[in-house]
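Quick bug: Sugar transferase output formatted oddly.
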Amino acid sequence: MLKVFSHYLPSHTLQQVLFDALLLFLVVLVAVVFLASPSVPDWAVFVPSALTFALLMVGLNTAMGLYRPVLRRCHRQAFARVALSLLVSIPVAYGIFGLLPWAEMAPHSLQLSVVLLLSSLLLMRGLVNQRQASSLFSPRVLIIGTGHDAAQVYRDLTRPLQRSVEIVGFLRGGGDEKLEVDARQVLPAQGLLDAVQAMKVNEVIVAVRERRGGVLPIRELLDCKLAGVRIVDLSSFFERVQGQVRLDSLRASWLIYGDGFRQGLARTFVKRVFDIVVALLLLVLTLPIMLVTMFLIVIEDGAPVFYRQERVGLGGRVIRVIKFRSMRRDAEKDGKPRWATSNDDRVTRVGRVIRKLRIDELPQLFNVLLGDMSLVGPRPERPFFVDQLAREIPFYNVRHCVKPGVTGWAQVRYQYGASVDDAMEKLQYDLYYVKNHTLILDTLVLFETVRVVLTGEGAH
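Here's what came back:
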């Protein structure tokens, strides 16, 4: 894993992205040589333009999720991702051609050839990503611990969608830890530094919670770090691999002294400008969809079309969120708040469709313009449930230190849920976003939202 703009990217994904960008860049240059006008091309113009084109197209498809591996049997998911990439990339490619300074020198045959080659590259990448993820430089990892946490780390590192490391084995951390891993992978008792050197380990993951009484070889961990070996604790591991800040390995001191959770004026200003510009653009683009939705709601269940509901926003302040009404008018006639479920019988037929496609959230773009919400952030919850969740889940109110979002990191990473356990799971993703939010991560979440909706990989 590599940290890029405060967000972790798998090393094998970065290798694929760089390889495809280089390949597309070279293909464009070759196409220029064979298909450009008879005169010698102006390489001072063509080379930067070809590089810009390659980086933009590969970056776009990275954001659309093309480079996220899929399971071998999930052919529908693989097809949906490739189809979405082609659907978006081809018109964007033609648009970029028109903006680049070589547009007048490049004949139509050159543009068509490059677009066809781009399509072939996307198809190839979609097929390759059905295979197990691999890396040219897979780090060799040693796990300290043999208990529950060590087993969880092993499972996360060997998932088909995640595997890009070579696990050399487990080393007992000391104490009375239970054996919950394969005993055949447990290394004989030996010094940590000796094991690291003998097995050429690049990274040590400390999967032991108890650190008092000499359970961990602190001095040897320091020696390993000074020797260039990466040392990772549980909190950092789950943040890096799962995109979560895990509650079961989280302490208040880590929130206070750790990296992230920065809320500077510059970041707030940039995020606000980004919200206004993108929200206005989305309102213009989705206006026909919203008009049709309003008409269908009135036809099926009458007025009102919109539904205003109190939610908890920045700093715990109560805001009124605007949504298209997706439930019957008497959904809460008894006045008691209820969790919305994935197959809620209170949802109308039109409501079921607009909830699945997240069209019901579009009016919240007006909340964004008013400044109550952001495009990306933790989803706002109702005050009744916030009081309940804050009592039962530690650090729940940390998510209120940023504006709530129309969409969020938890929404593109976790399936639909409506319980305290689901709220706890989503909070771990929300804490990751609060800790690491940048303009790059916001853009990634917006693209991921489009992919989740159009490919059907996620739920509302």
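Actually, after a second look the formatting is fine. The chain has three domains: 2-128, 140-242, 265-455. Closing.
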